[in-house]
Records
---
Amino acid sequence: MADEKTNEKKLWGGRFSEGISDTCQEISESISYDRQLFGQDIQASLAHVEMLSRQKIVSPEIAEKIKSGLAEIEAEIINDEMKFSAELEDIHMHIEKRLIELIGEEGKYLHTGRSRNDQVAVDTHLFLKENLLKQRDELKSLLSTILALAEKHKADLWAGYTHTQIAQPVLLGHYLMAYFWMFRRDLDLLEFALNETDCSPLGAAALGGANYPIDREFTASKLGFARVYQNSMDAVSNRDYQLSYHFFVTRLFVHISRFCEDMILYNTVEFSYVKLGDRVTTGSSIMPQKKNPDIAELLRGKTARVIGNLQALLVNLKGLPLTYNRDLQEDKVYLLDSVRQAALGIGGVIEILNNVTFCPERVVENLKRGFAQATDVADYLVSHYNIAFRRAHEMTGQLVLFCETRKITLDEVSKSDIATLWGGQYEFSGDLLKLESCIARKQGTGSTSYVELERQIESAKKMI
């Protein structure tokens, strides 16, 4: 019986006389997380062995036995019958070792013309492409959800803020559409990452290509890739497609975090702009009255996590010499996590939007208390009395101070108040201070006017 410290069980152990230490084996293993890639690894192996058979590199009989063995292994893993061991390092070695156990020596032909370097690369390309396609559909669902809410609330008033201070009245639909366009740009970035991922590295082998008449275009087509890498060294060392994905997820979560921050703030008793439903809130272990926006808070917190994954891969890649280095094994830790978090993030925002009640009547109170019509007053003085804007700005500021001192709102100012403050030559038109009129006066593409919001919504519908 072989000493447990030898590399007899390693598929690469031929030139070694002493086994790896337990500590180094623990450092070396990745099966604890890359077992998730078993489906992609088997898919790529099936395409590879079919190519080997077509190219007469292995016999059709051997190819069929390998295919049959791979199908049996896939069933074992799906049914949780495969035993995983750190000793076999990764999912690639587990599948190949099990294949040899099942079909004998013929199983050793599978690795002809490939390396774990291009094998892991094709697995991660397949995994990421599959998830990008899912997340594209999920993002479109999110956009449709926002669009439906914007149309539902296209006539409701809302507050626009700068510096977290009341700024101007806007339409609630317009506010929601701001997030539509953020997530729509994320969809564009997803498409960019998808294009970068849609490229097959299989056949690059260790780094210089294979010593057999392989057909890389065949395996690429079989696996659904649009093209193959044009340089074998680039194929095994490139992780730009993952960087693009991580940046997509990072920017997506920055937008998610901003939305969640709004919901958290607006859900407070002090604001009461929204009410979050039971399905997206949790309670307190000690305070019975609490209804906490934990889901929004957790999504906000996950933003730090995905930013960390992007940063980790950037630092990992910085200074790596060509081509493959074992440092790159860590890329799957970041990738698998970010893929999971992105799915949770998109789904979480959809859940929040489906379980939120907007309270525009409370918003109207604050618009008045915050003198949100002030800019309209200044612009009215400019257009009706030919006053320079800076002078109109100063006069309106005096009016706001007047209202604050007397604890009244702008729409409660009387003609005598205006005469006292500015003189008798100035007066307001009847609807000047109506919040709806402030909305209607806005002009230009993308403004918050009723007409422009309608146009914006119709334009967005065509995009999705």
Note: The longest helix spans residues 116-152.
---
Amino acid sequence: MKAVAIDLDGTLLNSKHQISSYTKNILNKLDKNGIKIVLASARPIRSVLNIASEIGLNEFPMIGGNGAIIAKNENEIFYRNSISKVDVLKIGEILKEYLSLNPKNEITMHIYSGFKWLIPFHTEKAKEEIKIIGFAPDVIGQDAFNSDLAEKIMFVSNPTILKEFLNIFNKNLSHLSSVLSKSDSLEINAIGVSKFLGVQEYANYHKLNISDFIAIGDGDNDETMIANCGYGVAMANGTKLAKAHAKFITETNDNDGVARFLENYFFKPK
């Protein structure tokens, strides 16, 4: 294998959204041995690149927005598959109408556009996400709806509320991709966006075959890359769908499952 595509939350990061020194050491050892490491996350690309920098992987493009954007920095964006401005505005209208009819329900909305992060409503859930991501949004308030494009839009709410909103959303914008990545998180992308297609674009850029990749993840949105890359690995804390398509199930994210698998695969005698 020549490359490893790794999800972040629930996979490379532990429950405190941190990376252990052991994991960093293994990834740097792989890098020094010529194995390409690509982080493939639903997070905004700026957050993905910040984590790559923390690890010491500063020279390579990374994958954000569920595969909708691949970039090395703000001036070097190699791939974008975006939701149009018309649809961003339409999504905002649907959300505002829903909330006006259901004033007791609260839905947090995140808009990820290139290297910008926009939040229309500064809810408690939004404040929690800011702490997790580690930097402040570029826009907070109604101006967030003026984004030209968006690689990903995420809604966070009570699972019951989110399912109700998803039904309304799908009736109005069925041409967009929608997935409940967690019971309380609804993620919207342009149709066709997936982490696997992001990895394919990355592979093309580096003139690699998809069979050269190990893919490691824990969620339903990792399933396609786990199933279709050369070797798929799921976390012990992963979803049933992720595990069902994996060739190997490693330990949990809180027990350095990624690093333990990679060390055994690449550096232990067979």
Note: The chain has a mean pLDDT of 93.
---
Amino acid sequence: MSNLDVVMRYADALHEYDVEGLVAEMHEQIVCRYPQSGEVIKGRDNYRAFLEAYPGLPQTRVDSVDYREETFLIPSALPGQPGVTVSGVGDMFVAQSFFAYPDGSEYYVVTLFVLREGKIAEETSYFAAPFEAPDWRAPFRQAP
């Protein structure tokens, strides 16, 4: 089983809100960081309790995977929104995704994963809300 398999199973479990599936891919001494809020969650049991108390994970799910040289694009289940891109090599992976939460908030999310002993040992997530581009940048924009 490769580290990529571990990360992909973790992504599947997140998008299905499968706490047991998430925990199965975690190292016993996992450290989860949310730098913007200053939170650090340590240990698999504590992280499990955190997930069980979570008031609702975002709406998004893994539909399929498109392999392209160490980069995997997972199309979004949300119409008009980007899918999840997972890329990495060795013990380090990056996931870029779009989350729509039950309260109506939306975020682009970048998550950094470090694996150890075939499990996710570190997870650091950064969240950014969508915003309108300022008019002064219009001459420089290009269509996606």
Note: The chain has a mean pLDDT of 81.
